[in-house]
What we know:
The protein has 17 helices and two strands. The chain is mostly helical. The chain has two domains: 132 residues, no CATH class; 275 residues, ABC transporter involved in vitamin B12 uptake, BtuC (Orthogonal Bundle). A two-stranded antiparallel sheet has the order 1-2.
Amino acid sequence: MQQTSTPSRFGSLYGRIRARFQDVPISAWLVGMLAAVLVEALIGRDLAYMLGLGNLPSFFGLSLIFKKWTLIPSIVVFIVVVYVLPALGAVYLVRWAMHRWRGARSVAWVQRIPTRGYIIFNLAFVYVVLHFWAASSDYRLLVLRLLGVNIILTLSLNLVNGWMGEFSVSVAGFMAVGAYVSSVLMVWGFVNDDVFGPAVFPEAWAPYAFPLALIVAGAVTAFTALAVAIPSFRTRGDYLAIITLAYLFIVKSSIENIDFLGGARGFMNQPKVADSLLVVFLWTVLAVWVMHNYVTSTLGKATSAVRDNEPAAEMMTVNTRKVKMVAFLTHAFWSGVAGGLYAHIVGYINPGSFGLVKSAEILGMLYLGGLNSVTGSVLGTVLFTLLSEILRPLKLVKWMVIPVILIVVMIKRPRGLLGFQEIRLPFLERRARAEEEVSHAPAGD
Length: 445
């Protein structure tokens, strides 16, 4: 009897918590996160020293558990004092203020902001929170920038492996092409290099030319992807996986044997145009926006129709080959853009960085978050990256623990955490319904 009552007890607790906070806007949670980040900046280092954690922990102190398990009580105290209490306190104050001044002009003015403007405001708020959180550590800044690159890669791969229903492993190969093309363009144009000679343009122009270099790198990557798309989409079944695997090996071997690209030694001297978190954040937001619009468009729905039943889609006048081609080339383009960002974040690339292991890592992020889900791809990438950094003290054992976790997730949730569904925020849904009601209301009202 006790076993049957336990799940309902937790279920009712979850229901009460959800009912209590479902009317809290995203901005309130972001205020809570900002409060926690500011508290960490003010007292985090001193508190970590007092608790015996040493310097300020990079990722909430959780990685220290695998170095010295006796620090667990100190880590719990640090997380509660620095993160949990300030965040929940700020959320509670914002929620109380909203109920206290619900009819005030300031609150009414905020509620009249269009949903799109409200989303842009919250994205700016997210950047502010991430900026302050990363300001305390170069390591955090590096991880956040690489996280943005991985989100773009996972989303682009989801177009093929999710919405198109095929299986591709060439994401690392596309990434390599984009990385090398953008690096060559930027080094040739703005760096005095031993191989390419004096810079063609002033170095001060580099940040402004970088977006153009990324677009060119993505376009070149998409062009090379035609070598995969043209033969593979004339066939059916698992041929795409075989051809994309061959593409990956061909790209990696070709780069290793091109001397002016550094061969197996690698390529360096990329200008520091992606050192700012803002650059990667803007490209990541742009990629998410483009992917969301793509999958919700008529073309995206046609892609899903081809996945579900290709003969039926053809009977409904869907040009299945064109639909597949567009999805695959879009995947290649954004993978190339991500590769260009990666090259200028790290400042050094070599063929070994773009092997099968990198493709497997992106596949793990994709299937953890779930296919056919934009928010699932983002969630899977964030969780996989955080898990990888938290388990870093385990070194090689980490790559035994993470696969086991992925296997457990696949057993419990075969579709992934958010497969074929999106995270829906009640507050935004209510705003959208209210806007729709206002737009359809009679003029006299």
